[in-house]
Amino acid sequence: MPEQDFFKSLLPAVSIIKKHFERDSFIRLVTHNDADGLSSGGILATLAFRKKARFKISSEKKLDEKLVARLKEEHPDLVIFSDFGSGYLDIISESLAMDVIILDHHLPMEHKAENIIHINPMLHEIDGARDIAASGVCYFLAKAIDPENIDLACLGLLGALGDQQDKGEKKSLIGLNKIIEADAEEKHLLGKQLGLIFYGYETRPIAKAIAYTTIPYIPGLSSSEGNCVAFLKEIGIELLDGDRLRALADLSDEEKTKLFSALSNHMVSSGCDSNAIHQLIGTIYTFKLEEPSTSLRSGREYGSLLNACGRMGKQGVGLSIAVGDRMEAMSEAQETLDEYRRAISQALDWVQMNDKVEELENIYVIRAEDKINDTVIGVVSGILLSQGILKKMKPIIATAYTEDDQLKISARGVEELVEQGLHMGRIMQSAAEQVEGGGGGHDIAAGAYIPVNKESAFLEEVNRLVAEALA
Length: 471
What we know:
By secondary structure, this protein is α/β, with parallel strands linked by helices. The chain has helices at 2-9, 11-22, 35-50, 65-73, 89-95, 134-145, 153-162, 177-186, 206-212, 225-234, 253-269, 274-278, 299-311, 315-322, 328-353, 377-387, 415-419, 424-434, 455-470; strands at 26-32, 54-60, 78-82, 99-103, 116-119, 190-196, 240-241, 244-245, 281-287, 357-359, 364-367, 396-401, 406-412, 438-441, 445-451. Helix 3 (35-50) packs parallel to helix 6 (134-145) and helix 7 (153-162) packs across helix 8. The longest helix has 26 residues, at 328-353. The radius of gyration is 22 Å and the shape is globular.
């Protein structure tokens, strides 16, 4: 059974980690810089802290030879990579001779090394894009080391929500994520209900809840509280109950129906398709131990907050939140989330106002150059594809310059094409190798880094590979 095989695969890592805890080894934790990576890092750092281990943790934008060389110079006894590593086994094994554990859910490469324990659900025919994220892998490992770590279940779900793995009926989590969900419910950590999936369903004023929500992204309303206030007044939704601002949870069923209908009409008039509209309603995940007034109460908004910290260069703040800091880090994280929302809104405006979406035979392309930060280009391309504004069923490839003079590639696919055999991770891996770059990822979402002067050749190759995959 795939699930049993996956859980068995954790045992060698459990043994190695316990050995290093007992030896008081120096443990180096290295995690990716998105919501899944930061929640994974939060789990591993909490595990190490509880075991009084000597450790250092950092969140990194990408895994490459430079990062591995830095790690080697630190002389750790054990290195644990989370949310990346599966596609870079060769680079890791060439430079790191100490014990290495990789906890990932991305497309793995075929490579073995005696000192590397490689844990990835995809090695056991479990879908790493939908059934479990890296945070889930880290959660199951932490729980296998000590069952008391069941209290980290919400962090285990957080990466899945951040990676938009809510692909089940009514936007619910599926696969191994359901086991984590059950753990969280058993310990009264998690609440679930169906409704409009805006951030802050229980407590945030309605206009803020709509404005703060970026998935789904509602043209003209997301990131604009003023527009949301005007919209709600126009459709006759009362914002106040006495002198108290109403939340979505305060609305009557009739008002919720009216709001959904008005939002649907607004999105259709903005060019969105029916799939985007259906994203408005789904399963609301509430982290019950978090303060109701914060961005951490809603699982999806918590994921957005960690994504914001990672994408805006505040990984340390995100890690602090993930390990439990609710004081100084919280205010900085909230400011970062606001900045992140503005960056996404501005980037979308730039793309749409300047007609920057090119259509090739088999793909859409956005060449952002230095006009959009490479850390948010993937979010922007994902939003454009999910809105249904791009009417033909094609994947979208977005490119942007990086600070170290490379080209960041973000690729987003379409579920219907994935079902026909499209795998963006394999396409990114293959096309990047052709132009002296590196890439990989999931079937539905992937990425790469390539030399700037290879952009045209890379896009031509991707265009060709998409056609080949769907032939």
